[in-house]
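Progress note, project year one: complex with zinc ion.
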Amino acid sequence: MTPSAKSVPIFASDASRFVKEYYAALSKSDVAAVLLKFAESVSYSDRPRDHAFIEKDLRDYVTRWPVLNLKPEAVAVSPKDDGSTVITFDLIYSVANERNKKSLSGHSTNTWIVQRVRGEIQIVSQRELVHPNPVPAVEKTPRRQSHEDEEALSDEELKKQGDTQIEIPTAQSTSKPSVTPAAKSAPKNVAPSGFVIALDIGHSPLRGGAVSARGVFEYEFNRRLVAELFAQLQSLGFARSFVINPQGDEIRLPQRSAKANEQNADLLLAIHHDSVKDKYLKTWQTNGKTQKYCDDFHGYSIFISNKNVKAADSRLFATKLGQALLKAGFTPTLHHVDQENRPIIDKEKGIYTFDDLVVLKTAKMPAVLLECGVIVNRAEEEKLNSPAYRKLLIDAIVRAIQDFSSIGNRNN
Ligand SMILES: [Zn+2]
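Model obtained:
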């Protein structure tokens, strides 16, 4: 027992930060940073091990799984009599290797013993009990055309999932032009505070969607953009707008629109980032790893569902969104036509129909899905990582929302 171990207790907040930093470093394959968190001698899976052993073990792990999604949860601490502290937590993991198409997911129960050495927390014992998911659900489903097909289910498939409480709205004919709010009602100029936007972060930490040219899951791009868009909407007075699944819980697709329906949202906007079909992907080396990319396609795309009960309004918002993006200098990508036979209804603005996208078709308000850009394109991924570029994108989205909300779309 060292005096410092006794004088500076390790609180739950310290432990939580420590565990998060550990997995953030590991997710980036930063083995050196992870190694710093271990004491000189460690009980590692109940065996005494030194740094050399642990380093090799960690390097093997990040080589085996270049794509790591590691989410610690429910971090708890309990101090021991000898001055050390026991940290327990669950780890939700999904790991993948694009090269051999292997992936694993599940959760693990973790028990670490840590102590303070010269003020720094260090691991003296680490034990993990892994509970893998039986068979990855993704592999059970037949191979789909694109990553976004995971987001689509036919009405029958949707009913089979047992969502009896979720009614699938019957499609309205989109050939009824008279239902557009602009034509039907006089502009009402809804104040931003009265207009509710539900923002959906595409995919989840465990089912991350597409993988970027630098090996980052689409979910990370979606989450970041939604957070920034949400902040911008709040600052402009859209005070009742909300993010559907901010914690990234594993909720099923119909539950996403159900949340928007419950809160009577006026508009649902799902944020995604795009990929291309596998056969167009090439490999390159980046950060010491082999990744897949395709520089041949770039740009945004907009999707609506004709099965949405407000299909005409969805189309109206999609048009405004396309106009705003074009005006800001963005260009649409048309590759979904050739690669997935997706019907395109407005080539100039990059608007497609994808009727069975679950979130769109089960929403009771106008709903649009935006693919912000192609993240397997190396240059476009870099742009999307630039705050200035995202600001341009978000400003354009916000202008479309302001325009749409001001024409009296509410409750008609
Ligand atoms: Zn997506």
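The CA atoms of residues 196 and 240 lie 5 Å apart.
The chain has 14 helices and 15 strands.
No further modelling is planned for this target in the current period.
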